[in-house]
Amino acid sequence: MKKQNNEIRVAVYPGSFDPVTKGHMDIIQRASRQFDKLIVAVLNNTSKSPLFTVEERKELLTSATSHLENVEIDSFRDLLVNYMVYKQADVIVRGIRSVTDFEYELQIASTNHKLNSEVETIFMMTNPTYSYLSSSMVKEIASFQGNVSDLVPAVVEKALKDKYDGNQLTNN
């Protein structure tokens, strides 16, 4: 996926990452090998109530990706296609877990292409090990002090414990 004429090939992997999971990390690691620069862009999804602030999510991602030299962590509050132009990126990376994900992502990719035909979207299939995994599921498990060590990077596991410490729901 690297350009032939010495131009830097920049891709953006957008998401809410609330929190980043091992499924996200799988996509980040694989995409970082395909592009000269991968920008992991945290967005504030207005349809969700985030557990972590945008800044906290950026810090967690920065820590979790510190071993990947060509990965940059950023955030944005605009249309993705506008952000792409601003960052001089030409490819959007999206992870796909299921057919349902694909249908949803195809609509978004088609809309982004309509808004800016210079921007391409590539879909990466999630490693089957993580095909069931979602940030929502991780938060649910962590909220009841369940073990999430196999689901998230260690830094995220600690952050989840800190967030939920003392907040366990009790059944009366």
Layout of helices and strands, plus pairs?
Blueprint: E1 10-15, H1 22-34, E2 37-43, H2 54-64, E3 71-76, H3 80-86, E4 91-96, H4 99-115, E5 120-125, H5 135-143, H6 154-164
Structure in words:
- Substrate binds at residues 16, 48, 80, 94.
- Belongs to the bacterial CoaD family.
- It is found in: Cytoplasm.
- This protein is α/β, with parallel strands linked by helices.
- It contains 6 helices and 5 strands.
- The longest helix has 17 residues, at 99-115.
- The model is unreliable at 168-172 (pLDDT under 50).
Order of helices and strands: EHEHEHEHEHH
CATH superfamily: HUPs
Which second-level CATH architecture applies?
3-Layer(aba) Sandwich
Mean pLDDT: 91
Termini gap: 56 Å
Helix content: 25-40%
Number of helices: 6
Number of strands: 5
Summarize the structure.
With 172 residues, this protein is α/β, with parallel strands linked by helices. It contains six helices and five strands; from the N terminus they run E-H-E-H-E-H-E-H-E-H-H.
Label this structure with key terms.
172 residues, alpha/beta, Rossmann fold, 5-stranded parallel beta sheet, 5 strands, 40% helix, disordered C terminus, EC 2.7.7.3, pantetheine-phosphate adenylyltransferase activity, ATP binding
